[in-house]
Design goal:
2 copies of one chain form a homodimer. By secondary structure, chain A is α+β, with helices and mostly antiparallel strands. Chain A has helices at 11-14, 19-28, 76-85, 98-103, 112-116, and strands at 6-10, 36-41, 47-52, 55-60, 63-69, 87-92, 120-121, 130-131, 137-147, 154-166, 185-187, 191-200. The first copy, chain A, has one domain (31-193): Pnp Oxidase, Chain A, CATH 2.30.110. Chain A is 16% helix and 36% strand. In chain A, the strands form 3 sheets. In chain A, strands 3-2-6-9-10-5-4 form a 7-stranded antiparallel beta sheet. Chain A has a two-stranded antiparallel ribbon with strand order 7-8. A two-stranded antiparallel sheet of chain A has the order 11-12. Chain A is globular. Chains A and B meet through strand 1, helix 2, strand 4, strand 5 and helix 4 of A and strand 1, helix 2, strand 4, strand 5 and helix 4 of B.
Protein backbone atom coordinates (compact mmCIF):
# COMPACT_ATOMS: atom_id res chain seq x y z
CA UNK A 1 0.00 0.00 0.00
CA UNK A 2 1.05 3.58 -0.70
CA UNK A 3 2.27 5.31 2.45
CA UNK A 4 4.28 8.01 0.69
CA UNK A 5 3.20 11.60 1.27
CA UNK A 6 2.76 13.18 -2.18
CA UNK A 7 2.92 16.88 -2.93
CA UNK A 8 0.61 17.94 -5.75
CA UNK A 9 1.06 20.96 -8.01
CA UNK A 10 -1.52 22.04 -10.57
CA UNK A 11 -1.25 24.33 -13.59
CA UNK A 12 -3.35 26.94 -11.78
CA UNK A 13 -0.63 27.05 -9.07
CA UNK A 14 2.25 27.67 -11.46
CA UNK A 15 1.56 31.35 -12.06
CA UNK A 16 1.50 32.11 -8.34
CA UNK A 17 4.84 30.45 -7.74
CA UNK A 18 8.01 32.38 -7.13
CA UNK A 19 9.82 32.36 -10.49
CA UNK A 20 12.93 30.46 -9.40
CA UNK A 21 10.83 27.85 -7.57
CA UNK A 22 8.79 27.24 -10.72
CA UNK A 23 11.90 27.09 -12.90
CA UNK A 24 13.59 24.51 -10.65
CA UNK A 25 10.40 22.48 -10.26
CA UNK A 26 9.47 22.28 -13.95
CA UNK A 27 13.05 21.63 -15.03
CA UNK A 28 13.10 18.64 -12.64
CA UNK A 29 10.24 16.84 -14.38
CA UNK A 30 12.06 15.48 -17.40
CA UNK A 31 14.17 13.18 -15.23
CA UNK A 32 17.87 12.61 -15.78
CA UNK A 33 19.03 14.37 -18.90
CA UNK A 34 21.45 13.94 -21.78
CA UNK A 35 23.72 16.81 -20.80
CA UNK A 36 26.36 17.74 -23.40
CA UNK A 37 28.69 20.54 -24.34
CA UNK A 38 27.75 21.96 -27.74
CA UNK A 39 30.70 23.30 -29.72
CA UNK A 40 30.31 25.78 -32.58
CA UNK A 41 32.22 28.57 -34.28
CA UNK A 42 31.33 31.49 -36.50
CA UNK A 43 32.67 32.05 -40.04
CA UNK A 44 35.65 33.91 -38.61
CA UNK A 45 36.56 30.87 -36.50
CA UNK A 46 35.58 32.35 -33.11
CA UNK A 47 34.55 29.37 -31.00
CA UNK A 48 31.59 28.98 -28.66
CA UNK A 49 30.91 26.28 -26.09
CA UNK A 50 27.61 25.88 -24.21
CA UNK A 51 26.14 23.31 -21.86
CA UNK A 52 22.83 21.86 -23.10
CA UNK A 53 20.54 19.39 -21.40
CA UNK A 54 17.85 19.32 -24.09
CA UNK A 55 19.64 16.80 -26.32
CA UNK A 56 18.02 13.66 -27.69
CA UNK A 57 18.16 10.78 -30.13
CA UNK A 58 16.01 11.37 -33.24
CA UNK A 59 16.77 8.34 -35.41
CA UNK A 60 19.39 5.69 -36.16
CA UNK A 61 19.01 5.44 -39.95
CA UNK A 62 19.63 8.12 -41.02
CA UNK A 63 21.61 8.88 -37.85
CA UNK A 64 20.03 12.00 -36.35
CA UNK A 65 20.12 13.89 -33.07
CA UNK A 66 18.16 16.89 -31.85
CA UNK A 67 18.75 19.83 -29.53
CA UNK A 68 16.34 22.48 -28.29
CA UNK A 69 17.64 26.04 -28.27
CA UNK A 70 16.12 29.08 -26.61
CA UNK A 71 16.78 31.99 -28.96
CA UNK A 72 16.51 34.50 -26.12
CA UNK A 73 19.08 32.82 -23.87
CA UNK A 74 22.84 33.13 -23.55
CA UNK A 75 23.08 30.13 -25.86
CA UNK A 76 21.95 32.14 -28.89
CA UNK A 77 25.55 32.08 -30.21
CA UNK A 78 25.16 28.35 -30.67
CA UNK A 79 22.15 28.81 -32.93
CA UNK A 80 23.71 31.66 -34.92
CA UNK A 81 26.96 29.77 -35.41
CA UNK A 82 25.47 26.43 -36.37
CA UNK A 83 23.20 28.05 -38.92
CA UNK A 84 26.15 30.06 -40.27
CA UNK A 85 28.55 27.13 -40.69
CA UNK A 86 26.09 24.23 -40.83
CA UNK A 87 27.98 22.30 -38.16
CA UNK A 88 28.02 21.61 -34.41
CA UNK A 89 29.58 19.10 -32.05
CA UNK A 90 28.14 17.29 -29.03
CA UNK A 91 30.63 16.36 -26.32
CA UNK A 92 29.75 14.14 -23.35
CA UNK A 93 30.66 15.54 -19.95
CA UNK A 94 32.84 13.69 -17.42
CA UNK A 95 33.09 14.18 -13.66
CA UNK A 96 36.62 15.61 -13.96
CA UNK A 97 35.36 18.70 -15.84
CA UNK A 98 31.67 19.06 -14.96
CA UNK A 99 32.21 22.32 -13.08
CA UNK A 100 33.91 23.82 -16.13
CA UNK A 101 31.03 22.53 -18.27
CA UNK A 102 28.48 24.20 -15.96
CA UNK A 103 30.50 27.41 -16.01
CA UNK A 104 30.10 27.72 -19.82
CA UNK A 105 26.57 29.00 -19.07
CA UNK A 106 28.01 32.32 -17.84
CA UNK A 107 27.83 35.26 -20.25
CA UNK A 108 31.41 35.61 -21.41
CA UNK A 109 32.83 38.14 -23.85
CA UNK A 110 35.52 35.65 -24.92
CA UNK A 111 35.25 32.04 -26.07
CA UNK A 112 34.01 29.76 -23.31
CA UNK A 113 36.88 27.38 -24.12
CA UNK A 114 39.33 30.01 -22.99
CA UNK A 115 37.16 31.32 -20.16
CA UNK A 116 36.61 27.95 -18.44
CA UNK A 117 39.82 26.20 -19.49
CA UNK A 118 38.69 23.49 -21.87
CA UNK A 119 40.58 22.54 -25.04
CA UNK A 120 39.18 22.86 -28.58
CA UNK A 121 40.29 20.21 -31.08
CA UNK A 122 39.28 19.74 -34.70
CA UNK A 123 38.67 17.05 -37.26
CA UNK A 124 38.86 17.61 -41.02
CA UNK A 125 35.17 16.94 -41.59
CA UNK A 126 33.45 19.30 -39.15
CA UNK A 127 33.68 23.08 -39.06
CA UNK A 128 33.17 23.23 -35.30
CA UNK A 129 35.39 22.54 -32.29
CA UNK A 130 35.30 19.36 -30.25
CA UNK A 131 36.21 19.29 -26.54
CA UNK A 132 39.48 17.38 -26.06
CA UNK A 133 38.60 16.53 -22.44
CA UNK A 134 35.44 14.72 -23.57
CA UNK A 135 35.71 11.01 -24.33
CA UNK A 136 32.54 10.69 -26.42
CA UNK A 137 32.33 13.31 -29.18
CA UNK A 138 29.87 13.57 -32.04
CA UNK A 139 30.15 15.83 -35.08
CA UNK A 140 26.90 16.84 -36.79
CA UNK A 141 25.73 18.81 -39.80
CA UNK A 142 22.58 20.90 -39.72
CA UNK A 143 19.60 19.01 -41.16
CA UNK A 144 16.26 20.54 -40.16
CA UNK A 145 14.84 23.35 -38.04
CA UNK A 146 11.41 23.73 -36.42
CA UNK A 147 10.22 26.79 -34.53
CA UNK A 148 7.93 25.85 -31.67
CA UNK A 149 5.03 28.27 -31.81
CA UNK A 150 4.12 27.80 -28.18
CA UNK A 151 7.21 29.34 -26.60
CA UNK A 152 9.62 30.38 -29.33
CA UNK A 153 12.02 27.49 -28.70
CA UNK A 154 13.89 26.19 -31.73
CA UNK A 155 14.36 22.50 -32.49
CA UNK A 156 17.55 21.79 -34.42
CA UNK A 157 18.07 18.37 -35.95
CA UNK A 158 21.58 17.39 -36.93
CA UNK A 159 22.87 14.55 -39.03
CA UNK A 160 25.63 12.53 -37.33
CA UNK A 161 28.74 12.89 -39.46
CA UNK A 162 31.36 11.33 -37.19
CA UNK A 163 31.72 9.72 -33.79
CA UNK A 164 34.74 9.41 -31.53
CA UNK A 165 34.53 7.09 -28.51
CA UNK A 166 37.04 5.05 -26.48
CA UNK A 167 37.66 1.77 -28.31
CA UNK A 168 37.43 -0.20 -25.05
CA UNK A 169 33.91 1.15 -24.40
CA UNK A 170 32.32 -0.18 -27.60
CA UNK A 171 30.61 -3.54 -27.25
CA UNK A 172 30.58 -6.13 -30.03
CA UNK A 173 26.91 -5.30 -30.67
CA UNK A 174 27.54 -1.57 -31.12
CA UNK A 175 26.43 -0.49 -27.63
CA UNK A 176 28.70 2.23 -26.26
CA UNK A 177 29.33 1.82 -22.54
CA UNK A 178 29.09 5.52 -21.78
CA UNK A 179 29.20 4.80 -18.04
CA UNK A 180 32.65 3.24 -18.51
CA UNK A 181 33.57 6.25 -20.69
CA UNK A 182 32.79 8.47 -17.69
CA UNK A 183 29.73 10.25 -19.14
CA UNK A 184 27.62 11.90 -16.44
CA UNK A 185 24.01 13.06 -16.38
CA UNK A 186 22.18 16.03 -14.88
CA UNK A 187 18.83 16.81 -13.31
CA UNK A 188 16.95 20.09 -13.29
CA UNK A 189 19.22 23.07 -13.99
CA UNK A 190 22.21 22.50 -11.78
CA UNK A 191 22.55 18.96 -10.37
CA UNK A 192 25.14 16.55 -11.81
CA UNK A 193 25.23 12.78 -11.25
CA UNK A 194 27.38 9.76 -12.04
CA UNK A 195 25.66 6.45 -12.78
CA UNK A 196 25.72 2.81 -11.72
CA UNK A 197 24.38 0.22 -14.17
CA UNK A 198 21.50 -2.01 -13.08
CA UNK A 199 21.59 -4.16 -16.24
CA UNK A 200 21.18 -4.25 -19.98
CA UNK A 201 17.92 -6.04 -20.76
CA UNK A 202 17.10 -8.24 -23.73
CA UNK A 203 14.62 -7.16 -26.44
CA UNK A 204 11.09 -7.32 -25.01
CA UNK A 205 8.72 -9.93 -26.49
CA UNK A 206 5.27 -10.78 -25.19
CA UNK A 207 5.84 -14.34 -24.01
CA UNK A 208 9.54 -14.36 -23.30
CA UNK A 209 11.13 -13.51 -19.93
CA UNK A 210 13.70 -10.71 -20.06
CA UNK A 211 17.33 -11.72 -19.64
CA UNK A 212 20.33 -9.57 -18.79
CA UNK A 213 22.76 -8.91 -21.63
CA UNK A 214 26.38 -9.63 -20.75
CA UNK A 215 28.59 -8.26 -23.46
CA UNK B 1 48.30 14.11 -22.93
CA UNK B 2 45.72 11.92 -24.59
CA UNK B 3 46.64 8.25 -24.31
CA UNK B 4 43.15 6.88 -24.87
CA UNK B 5 42.62 4.74 -27.95
CA UNK B 6 39.65 6.24 -29.82
CA UNK B 7 37.44 4.41 -32.28
CA UNK B 8 36.14 6.61 -35.09
CA UNK B 9 32.98 6.06 -37.08
CA UNK B 10 31.99 8.20 -40.05
CA UNK B 11 28.67 8.70 -41.82
CA UNK B 12 30.00 6.79 -44.83
CA UNK B 13 30.49 3.75 -42.53
CA UNK B 14 26.94 3.75 -41.16
CA UNK B 15 25.30 2.18 -44.20
CA UNK B 16 27.74 -0.74 -44.23
CA UNK B 17 27.11 -1.54 -40.57
CA UNK B 18 25.06 -4.50 -39.46
CA UNK B 19 21.66 -3.00 -38.61
CA UNK B 20 21.62 -3.87 -34.89
CA UNK B 21 25.18 -2.60 -34.44
CA UNK B 22 24.22 0.74 -35.99
CA UNK B 23 21.03 0.96 -33.92
CA UNK B 24 22.87 0.32 -30.64
CA UNK B 25 25.72 2.66 -31.57
CA UNK B 26 23.61 5.64 -32.65
CA UNK B 27 21.19 5.23 -29.75
CA UNK B 28 24.18 5.46 -27.37
CA UNK B 29 25.20 8.92 -28.53
CA UNK B 30 22.59 10.99 -26.73
CA UNK B 31 24.04 10.07 -23.32
CA UNK B 32 21.91 9.21 -20.32
CA UNK B 33 18.26 9.72 -21.10
CA UNK B 34 15.04 10.86 -19.45
CA UNK B 35 13.35 7.48 -19.56
CA UNK B 36 9.63 7.52 -18.64
CA UNK B 37 6.51 5.42 -18.92
CA UNK B 38 3.92 7.22 -21.05
CA UNK B 39 0.32 6.45 -20.06
CA UNK B 40 -2.62 7.00 -22.41
CA UNK B 41 -6.06 5.60 -23.11
CA UNK B 42 -8.45 5.65 -26.03
CA UNK B 43 -11.99 7.08 -25.95
CA UNK B 44 -13.34 3.74 -24.77
CA UNK B 45 -10.99 3.81 -21.79
CA UNK B 46 -8.61 1.07 -22.98
CA UNK B 47 -5.23 1.94 -21.45
CA UNK B 48 -1.78 1.87 -23.01
CA UNK B 49 1.61 2.12 -21.36
CA UNK B 50 4.91 2.51 -23.24
CA UNK B 51 8.51 3.15 -22.27
CA UNK B 52 9.97 6.28 -23.91
CA UNK B 53 13.49 7.65 -23.71
CA UNK B 54 12.97 10.62 -26.02
CA UNK B 55 11.46 12.89 -23.36
CA UNK B 56 12.65 16.43 -22.65
CA UNK B 57 12.01 19.76 -21.00
CA UNK B 58 10.64 22.39 -23.41
CA UNK B 59 9.93 25.34 -21.15
CA UNK B 60 9.12 26.36 -17.57
CA UNK B 61 6.65 29.19 -18.23
CA UNK B 62 4.40 27.99 -19.72
CA UNK B 63 5.34 24.58 -18.32
CA UNK B 64 5.95 22.34 -21.34
CA UNK B 65 7.50 18.97 -22.04
CA UNK B 66 8.14 17.13 -25.30
CA UNK B 67 8.29 13.54 -26.48
CA UNK B 68 9.34 12.12 -29.83
CA UNK B 69 7.16 9.37 -31.23
CA UNK B 70 7.89 7.05 -34.14
CA UNK B 71 4.56 6.55 -35.91
CA UNK B 72 5.71 3.24 -37.39
CA UNK B 73 6.72 1.68 -34.07
CA UNK B 74 4.84 -0.36 -31.49
CA UNK B 75 4.30 2.91 -29.65
CA UNK B 76 1.80 4.18 -32.22
CA UNK B 77 -1.05 3.57 -29.73
CA UNK B 78 0.42 6.34 -27.60
CA UNK B 79 0.17 8.83 -30.45
CA UNK B 80 -3.33 7.75 -31.48
CA UNK B 81 -4.61 7.85 -27.92
CA UNK B 82 -3.10 11.17 -26.93
CA UNK B 83 -4.45 12.84 -30.04
CA UNK B 84 -7.87 11.26 -29.41
CA UNK B 85 -8.21 12.30 -25.76
CA UNK B 86 -5.78 15.24 -25.66
CA UNK B 87 -3.97 13.83 -22.61
CA UNK B 88 -0.96 11.74 -21.58
CA UNK B 89 1.01 11.07 -18.43
CA UNK B 90 4.76 10.77 -17.84
CA UNK B 91 5.81 8.49 -15.00
CA UNK B 92 9.39 8.25 -13.75
CA UNK B 93 10.83 4.73 -13.51
CA UNK B 94 12.30 3.28 -10.32
CA UNK B 95 14.72 0.36 -9.92
CA UNK B 96 12.01 -1.81 -8.33
CA UNK B 97 9.98 -1.93 -11.56
CA UNK B 98 12.44 -1.17 -14.39
CA UNK B 99 12.14 -4.65 -15.88
CA UNK B 100 8.37 -4.27 -16.08
CA UNK B 101 8.88 -0.82 -17.64
CA UNK B 102 11.21 -2.29 -20.29
CA UNK B 103 8.73 -5.10 -20.95
CA UNK B 104 6.04 -2.58 -22.00
CA UNK B 105 7.92 -2.36 -25.33
CA UNK B 106 6.64 -5.83 -26.30
CA UNK B 107 3.71 -6.00 -28.74
CA UNK B 108 0.79 -6.95 -26.51
CA UNK B 109 -2.82 -7.48 -27.50
CA UNK B 110 -3.98 -6.39 -24.04
CA UNK B 111 -3.13 -3.27 -22.00
CA UNK B 112 0.53 -3.19 -20.99
CA UNK B 113 -0.58 -2.39 -17.42
CA UNK B 114 -2.17 -5.82 -17.21
CA UNK B 115 0.50 -7.57 -19.25
CA UNK B 116 3.48 -6.42 -17.17
CA UNK B 117 1.75 -6.02 -13.80
CA UNK B 118 1.76 -2.28 -13.18
CA UNK B 119 -1.16 -0.40 -11.62
CA UNK B 120 -3.15 2.35 -13.38
CA UNK B 121 -4.45 5.17 -11.17
CA UNK B 122 -6.35 8.29 -12.13
CA UNK B 123 -6.77 11.91 -11.15
CA UNK B 124 -9.87 13.97 -11.93
CA UNK B 125 -8.05 16.34 -14.28
CA UNK B 126 -6.34 14.01 -16.75
CA UNK B 127 -8.01 11.54 -19.07
CA UNK B 128 -5.04 9.15 -19.02
CA UNK B 129 -3.72 6.64 -16.49
CA UNK B 130 -0.82 7.26 -14.14
CA UNK B 131 1.44 4.46 -12.89
CA UNK B 132 0.87 3.91 -9.16
CA UNK B 133 4.35 2.40 -8.71
CA UNK B 134 5.97 5.62 -10.00
CA UNK B 135 6.85 8.29 -7.43
CA UNK B 136 7.14 11.23 -9.85
CA UNK B 137 4.12 11.53 -12.15
CA UNK B 138 3.22 14.32 -14.54
CA UNK B 139 -0.13 14.83 -16.29
CA UNK B 140 -0.08 16.73 -19.58
CA UNK B 141 -2.50 18.03 -22.18
CA UNK B 142 -1.66 18.03 -25.87
CA UNK B 143 -0.32 21.41 -27.00
CA UNK B 144 1.54 21.22 -30.31
CA UNK B 145 2.65 18.70 -32.93
CA UNK B 146 5.49 18.84 -35.45
CA UNK B 147 6.19 16.21 -38.08
CA UNK B 148 9.91 15.87 -38.73
CA UNK B 149 10.32 15.70 -42.50
CA UNK B 150 13.66 13.97 -42.33
CA UNK B 151 12.52 10.64 -40.84
CA UNK B 152 8.78 10.82 -40.16
CA UNK B 153 9.22 11.14 -36.39
CA UNK B 154 6.55 13.16 -34.59
CA UNK B 155 7.32 15.73 -31.90
CA UNK B 156 4.52 16.10 -29.38
CA UNK B 157 4.57 18.98 -26.94
CA UNK B 158 2.42 18.74 -23.85
CA UNK B 159 1.40 21.36 -21.33
CA UNK B 160 2.04 20.29 -17.72
CA UNK B 161 -1.35 20.16 -15.98
CA UNK B 162 -0.40 18.50 -12.70
CA UNK B 163 2.58 17.07 -10.87
CA UNK B 164 2.78 14.47 -8.12
CA UNK B 165 6.09 13.97 -6.29
CA UNK B 166 7.10 12.80 -2.82
CA UNK B 167 6.83 15.76 -0.44
CA UNK B 168 10.17 14.91 1.17
CA UNK B 169 11.95 15.16 -2.22
CA UNK B 170 11.00 18.78 -2.95
CA UNK B 171 13.61 21.33 -1.92
CA UNK B 172 12.68 24.78 -0.62
CA UNK B 173 13.82 26.26 -3.95
CA UNK B 174 11.56 24.00 -6.04
CA UNK B 175 14.26 21.49 -7.08
CA UNK B 176 12.90 17.95 -7.02
CA UNK B 177 15.46 15.45 -5.74
CA UNK B 178 14.59 12.77 -8.28
CA UNK B 179 17.57 10.69 -7.17
CA UNK B 180 16.04 10.47 -3.68
CA UNK B 181 12.68 9.70 -5.33
CA UNK B 182 14.35 6.68 -6.94
CA UNK B 183 14.15 7.86 -10.56
CA UNK B 184 16.55 5.94 -12.80
CA UNK B 185 18.04 6.72 -16.22
CA UNK B 186 18.84 4.67 -19.32
CA UNK B 187 21.43 4.59 -22.07
CA UNK B 188 21.05 3.34 -25.63
CA UNK B 189 18.06 1.02 -26.05
CA UNK B 190 18.34 -1.37 -23.14
CA UNK B 191 20.68 -0.28 -20.34
CA UNK B 192 19.30 1.06 -17.06
CA UNK B 193 21.25 2.96 -14.41
CA UNK B 194 20.81 4.43 -10.94
CA UNK B 195 22.60 7.68 -10.11
CA UNK B 196 24.88 9.19 -7.49
CA UNK B 197 24.91 12.99 -7.11
CA UNK B 198 28.18 14.85 -7.57
CA UNK B 199 26.72 18.23 -6.55
CA UNK B 200 24.26 20.95 -7.32
CA UNK B 201 26.16 23.96 -8.63
CA UNK B 202 25.36 27.64 -8.21
CA UNK B 203 24.23 29.83 -11.13
CA UNK B 204 27.22 30.48 -13.41
CA UNK B 205 28.49 34.06 -13.62
CA UNK B 206 31.65 35.22 -15.39
CA UNK B 207 33.72 36.37 -12.44
CA UNK B 208 32.28 34.33 -9.61
CA UNK B 209 33.56 30.89 -8.52
CA UNK B 210 30.90 28.17 -8.50
CA UNK B 211 29.71 26.95 -5.13
CA UNK B 212 27.85 23.79 -4.23
CA UNK B 213 24.20 24.24 -3.30
CA UNK B 214 23.20 22.54 -0.07
CA UNK B 215 19.47 22.54 0.25
Amino acid sequence: METLNFATFRAADFEQMEKQFRTNLINSLSGFKSVCLVGTQNRAGVTNLAVFSQVFHVGANPALMGILVRPDSVRRDTLTNLQETGFFTLNHIRADFYKQAHQTAARYEVSEFEAVGLTPIYSHAIQAPYVAESHVRIGLSFAERHNLAINGTVLIIGRVEEIFAPANCIAADGYVDIEKAGTITCSSLDSYHTTQRLARLSYAKPDKPLTEINW
